[in-house]
Design goal:
The protein has about 210 residues and is of the alpha/beta class. Helices cover about 50% and strands about 15% of the residues.
């Protein structure tokens, strides 16, 4: 009965302060007296597609949890995954306070693309956002032509990785400059434009990692 008495007094005092405090105190002390363990709620959605050669970083391993304790990832930070669709990422929460909290885990999926697959994905994206109210056909055709040239350079890298890597990087940098022009002129929203810019930079980093 002693824990129950403590709860009653705390709730009475909390009511006289604010409803928010009451809710916090009630949640805390109701848990202690009930003896039920709290399950950590993990939020982790499927990350966006990455290009082969991109090490896993906090951009992909970005779980949030209702209980602020470290989560273990598998694969871990810095891992380079093979090319493939719907690869499983795992995070596991093991509480230090096992008397009051349960373990929890989450398993989102990630796609790892080849640079060519990423280029094709970008071309489709440009085609999808080409509308009279946003990206005009002239700018769209120009961006697609740049991406198709980059795709050819990727194919050529099989014969001369270093030489054509430099050509590819130059082409993708020109592409990102053009995308920035479209953003600055109001033809393309910043959000959509930076999706393309981020994708181009992912390809650049990917081919650099593969040549090293």
């Amino acid at each position: 009965m002693f824990p129950t008495f403590i709860v009653t007094v705390t709730l009475f005092m909390a009511v006289s302060i604010t409803e928010t405090v009451l809710l916090k105190k009630f949640a805390t002390y109701a848990f202690v007296t009930s003896g039920e363990k709290v399950t950590n709620t993990i939020t982790w959605t499927n990350p966006i597609d990455i290009v082969y050669g991109t090490p896993l970083s906090s951009n992909q391993l970005d779980v949030s949890a209702s209980v602020p304790e470290p989560c273990a990832y598998n694969p871990s930070l810095g891992t380079v995954l093979d090319v493939g669709q719907q690869q499983i990422l795992i995070t596991t929460f093991t509480p230090t306070d096992t008397a009051n909290y349960t373990t929890a885990s989450e398993t989102p999926l990630i796609n790892v693309l080849t640079p060519t697959q990423k280029i094709n994905q970008m071309i489709t994206f440009v085609q999808d956002i080409t509308t009279p109210s946003e990206l005009d056909e002239g700018s769209s055709d120009g961006l697609i032509a740049m991406l198709q040239a980059s795709e050819k350079s990727i194919d050529e890298m099989e014969r001369d990785p270093t030489g054509d890597m430099l050509a590819l990087i130059a082409e993708l940098n020109t592409f990102t400059d053009k995308v920035n022009e479209c953003i600055n002129s109001g033809q393309l929203s910043s959000t959509k434009g930076h999706i393309l810019i981020d994708a181009a930079n992912d390809i650049i980093n990917s081919v650099r990692n593969q040549v090293r």
